[in-house]
Design a protein that fits this description.
Two copies of one chain form a homodimer. Chain A has helices at residues 2-8, 12-20, 27-40, 46-53, 69-84, 98-110, 125-132, 157-170, 186-202, 218-229, 245-258, 292-309, and strands at residues 58-63, 88-93, 115-119, 138-141, 151-155, 175-180, 207-212, 239-242, 268-271, 286-289, 317-320, 323-325. With 332 residues, chain A is an alpha/beta fold. In chain A, strands 2-1-3-4-5-11 form a six-stranded parallel sheet, with helices on both faces. Chain A has a six-stranded mixed sheet with strand order 7-6-8-9-10-12, with helices on both faces. The longest helix of chain A is centred in the last third of the chain and has 18 residues, at 292-309. The first copy, chain A, binds a DNA duplex (30 and 30 nucleotides) through α2 and α4.
Amino acid sequence: MQDVADAAGVSVGTVSNVLNHPAKVSPATAERVREAISRLGFVRNDAARSLVSGSTNSVGMVLADIENSLFIDMAHGAQDAARAVGQNLLLANTACDMTLQDDYLDLFDESRVTGVLLAPMEDSSAGIARIRSHGRQVVLLNYAPRPGTCCSVLVNNEHVGYLAARHLIDTGRTRLAYVVAHDDYQPVRDRRRGVRAAVEEAGPGVTLEEIDSVGLTSSHGHVVGQDLARRAPDDLPDGLIAVTDELANAIIHQLHAVAGIRVPDRVAVVGCENNRAAGASVVPLTAVDMPGRTMGQEAIRLLMDEVASGAQHRHATVVLEPELIVRASAPR
Amino acid sequence: MQDVADAAGVSVGTVSNVLNHPAKVSPATAERVREAISRLGFVRNDAARSLVSGSTNSVGMVLADIENSLFIDMAHGAQDAARAVGQNLLLANTACDMTLQDDYLDLFDESRVTGVLLAPMEDSSAGIARIRSHGRQVVLLNYAPRPGTCCSVLVNNEHVGYLAARHLIDTGRTRLAYVVAHDDYQPVRDRRRGVRAAVEEAGPGVTLEEIDSVGLTSSHGHVVGQDLARRAPDDLPDGLIAVTDELANAIIHQLHAVAGIRVPDRVAVVGCENNRAAGASVVPLTAVDMPGRTMGQEAIRLLMDEVASGAQHRHATVVLEPELIVRASAPR
DNA sequence: ACTAGACTTTGGAGCGCTTCAACGCGCGTC
DNA sequence: GACGCGCGTTGAAGCGCTCCAAAGTCTAGT
C-alpha cells in the first residue's frame, strides 16, 4: 500500500480512502491512485483489514451433507441473500463428520466471520455454545436448537410426515408402512410424529407399521426393498412412506423394477424431501418438498438481524411449511 | 491474548508459543496457559496470525456447479487431501456466473489463501492471470489452461467421447447420434472429437449424426427426446451419446417412459459423466465415469507442490483416464 | 564456587491496514 | 487584511498476533 501511495504521490491514508471512502477523495487524486493500484497489481490484504475492523464480510456455512440437494438448495438461497447484503458465502462440507464440523466451526470462529450458518445432522449444541460464547452468531438450519440458544430456520417436519401419510390415506391406502432410520436425528423424529398423527386421525381403518432401516441411503433402501419383496402378498403394505427420498427411490427400484411389484398399483410410495432426483427416478416420486432456498434466505436474514441488533436481539425461529408434490409413485 | 497472559502470569510470547510451538514451553506453564485460555474462552484471531505470517492454512475451491455430482466429488477428494496436509478447504459456488466467479477469486486472493482450486465452466484465463500475477497459486480442474499458465487436472475427455461411441459400436449400433450443447465449453469439444474418432475408426458402416441441444439440463433433454420421438422409426438413431448424464436421463425418460420407444432395445443411450443419479434412473444409465475424487486429490497435490517448490516450480498437467460403466441403457 | 551450556521466558518490533485528529489551503466574509 | 470554514490530505496509533534476540534460570562439570 505504501508502494501505491509513493507511486501516486500520496499518503497511505489516501490510498485507503480511495478504496473505502471514495467520496472523501478528490476525483483527480482517486484516479491517480487507482491507476497506480492497477499498474502495480496491488491487492489489499484482507487479514490486515479485518484485524483493524474486527470483522469480515464473509458468512461461513457449514453443511452436513453436500450431496443432498436440500443442503445445496439452502446454500443457494443463502448465497443469494448474502450477496444482496454485501456478504460472501463460504461453504464447508462436513460429510456428517462431527470432528470436521467442529474444526470448521472453529475455523470460521477464528476467521471472525460475520456469522455462521449451520445445517447439521446431529445435535450440535456443544459446538454452537462454544462459538456463541465467543460472540460469534450462529443460525441453525433444519435442526431445532436447544430453546433460546440461537436463531433457527426449520421446516415443520411433523407436517412433512403428516402430509405424506395423509396423502396415502386420502387416496385410499389403508395399510401404511413408515421406513425410518436414524431416529436420533430430530427431523426424523418429528416426521414420525406427523405420520402417526395422520394415521390416528384416520381411525381404526388404517394401520401403521414402522420398518427400521439400518441407514438412510440407497443401499439400505435396497435391503428394505428386498425384505418387502419377499413378503407374502397380503402381508405387503399398500402405502409406504420413506423418511428420505433416497430410501424411497431404492425401495421403488427393488419392488417395481426388480421384483415386479408395481408401484403405485400394489404399493404407493412417498418420500420426505423432494430431492433433485425425485422426479427422475424409475417411477417419479411423490414427495413432500422441503423449501431449501427459502430456508437459506431466511437464515441469512436472521443472521444479519442478529448482527445488526446486537444486545437487544431476541432469538427467533422461522418455521416454513412443506408442500406435497404429487408424482407417479403415489398419484392423486 | 494479553488477558490470557496476565491470567496465567506469563507473557504474550509464551501464550503464542503454547499455541504454536508447544515444545518450547515447559509442561507446567503450558498447562497453566491452556487453563487460562479455556477459562477465558480465548479464540485466537486468524486475521492477525495471517497478517504476520502472510499466509493462511486454507485452500479456496471455486466450483462452477455445485449441483453436479462431479464437482462435489472433486470437492470431496480435495477436502480429504487438504486435511491430510493440514489445510482447510473452503468452498464457493459460482452457479456458472462469471461475475461471481471473479468475486470469489478476488476474495480468496485478498484472503491470502494458500492457493485456489478452480473448476470453471468457461474459459477463465483472465481471472487466473489476475490472481496469479499477485503470486497466488491456482490449479485448474477439468478445464485445460492456456499452455504454461498454471497446473491442471484434467480427464481425457476425448477418450470419454471415444469410449462412449466405441461401446455403442462394439455392441452393434450403427446409426449413432451425439447430443451436444455448449460447444464452447472445452471438455465438450474434446468429447466430440473422441466420438468422431471412434466413428471414423469404425469405417463406413457406422454413421454419426450430431444433434444440437439448446442447453445441458433436463429440460433441454426433454425437448430433444420429444423431437426424437416424433421421428419416423427408421430415421431414429439406434445408439445415442449425450454429452451430460442429465441430458441422457431426460432423453431416456421421453423416449422410454413417455413415447414407449424402448431403451436400450430400440435406442441405446450412453452418458458422459456418471453422475450420482446415473444408476438410479428409469433405465440405469451406461456412462463414462469421470474420476472426481481423484481429480480433487491430485489438484491439492499439485497445489502444495507448487507452493513448496516456489520459483523452480514447473507447471504440470495431470490427465486421468475415464472408465466406462456399463448399465442397462446400453448393455454389453 | 564458578561457568558453560541447555532450557525457558520475556518484551518489543513489525505484519498491512483503517481511522482520526490535525494540518494545509483556497475562498468568501466582515 | 484577518478570520472562519470546508475540503483534501497527512501521519501516526493501534488492531492481535508471531518471531526473535536477549535475558533469566537451572544443571552439571570443573
